[in-house]
Amino acid sequence: MNFTVSHLLSPRVSTRTIHRGAVGALFFLQGLSFASWASRIPSIQQTLGLSDAELGGVLLALPAGLMLSLPIAGWLTTKIGSRKVATLAVGLYALTLLSLGFAQTTLQLMACLFVFGLVGNMANIAINTQAVGVEALYKRPIMASFHGLWSLAGFAGAMLGAVMIGAGIVPYQHFAAVLFFALAALAVASRYILPEDANTNSDQPIFAKPDKALLILGIIAFCAMICEGAMFDWSGIYFKKVILAEKAMVGAGYTAFMSTMALGRFIADWFATRYGLKRTLQLSGVLIASGLLTAVSFPYLGTAIVGFFLVGFGVSSVVPLVYSAAGKSTVLSPGVALAAVSTIGFLGFLIGPPLIGFVAGATSLRISFVIIAGMGLCVALMAGKVKTAE
């Protein structure tokens, strides 16, 4: 008897469910690879003897690679299809992760991080293009659930990293285990992702100027990712210096934010289906602003944690829903449209953390968080300009 995986998947499981599972696996693998690297940054810093300032300079290589790949990724995805790009890029992402563990000098680490950022964003554009296609099969929002799997992979990667560190496993051995798992899972998942992309025009230029609708989506992503970047880089510092939390509770704000961001992505699709894209984005902006203002107005441990919970819920749905809307563009193909919106949005992720530092140095950390709350209000206001087919 010729028994294959397809016997397990059919006829009881629908084709669209198979595609959804396969694309979800790619999101998980990318998130796992990134979280695995993030969990071992202190180990690699110690091994190479880098100061905090030196490490900061080294880490800039990753967004440099990411920014370079933004227009290329959209064009390449349109030209050869997201299936080929996603399969190749996710595999290379895990392989580059292993190279980070083998880096022996600062220059080697920077070169590997540059490639890590470059192939990572290629994977990001391609798998989100796949998600747009799967969402079209369902004819309702499901994009946020894919991003929820990325967040779950972040938790899994962080826990795996803690276990590896506790067991004394060096980074390259840790990363080799992740690579083996990623390649094995990719070999299966790549067989069941979408063979063709929706709304594809292979004649799209490498550099495409977004139309007004995409520009609005990009601005919304920009504002949301300023908030997201602020939470990633400054939540612990805020709890330490403003909340004056005990050492064991300094990470409570970040944990609160990450938990509700992951949870929110699994309920955002249902909410968007019931209440519409525009209302969901408006509520998201209000939650971001109210959460940050709560943490600023009542700088105590309990109220700050509640505030960061709200910020996590608010941030959770914005980027997935914006990507979903961008992928439905009638002007550009999904890959190019996603790249255009991602370029604008990611600038916010880069600008947010240093903006907080600049404002905090000139005034105070609480005032800088008020400004970030204003970005949440901008999300709510700009959402009113989003045109939908609802």
From TrEMBL:
Q: Which CDD domains match?
A: MFS_MosC_like
Q: Which residues form a coiled coil?
A: none
One molecular function GO term is:
transmembrane transporter activity
State the UniProt keywords alphabetically: Membrane, Transmembrane, Transmembrane helix
Query: What cellular component terms from Gene Ontology apply here?
Result: membrane
Enumerate the subcellular locations listed in this protein's record, separating them with semicolons: Membrane
TM region positions: 21-38, 58-78, 85-102, 108-127, 148-169, 175-194, 214-237, 249-268, 280-298, 304-323, 335-359, 365-384
- Name all Major facilitator superfamily (MFS) profile domain ranges: 19-390
Q: How does it sit in the membrane?
A: Multi-pass membrane protein
Q: Which Gene3D superfamilies match?
A: MFS general substrate transporter like domains
**One protein family per Pfam:** MFS_1
**Any idea what this protein is called?**
MFS transporter
Q: Source species, please?
A: Larkinella humicola
